[in-house]
Amino acid sequence: MARLLQDPSKLHPSEWYTANQMQHASTESQKSRSECMIAESWRLVDEIEKTTQKTQSDVNKKLEQRREEIKFWKQELDNKLEQIVHETEILLTFKNRLERALEGCKEPLVVAQKCLLYRQRRVGIDLVHDEVEQQLLKEVEVLQGIIALLGRTLEQTNEQIRRNRSAKYDLDMDLKDKFTALTIDDYCASLTNDTPHIIYADNAMKLEGNFVRPEDWIDFTNINVEKADKQRNNSLALKALIDGILSQIANDMRKQCEMVNNAFRNRVKEVKVAKHKLETLLAMVMDETASQEKNIAALKKAITDKEAPVKVAQTRLEARNHRPNVELCYDTVHSSLMSEVQEITKNIQRQDALAQAQTELKGLSRRQLSLEEEIKVKENTLYIDEVLCMQMRESVCISNF
Question: Which of 323, 324, 325, 345 is nearest to 334 (CA)?
Answer without folding.
Answer: 323
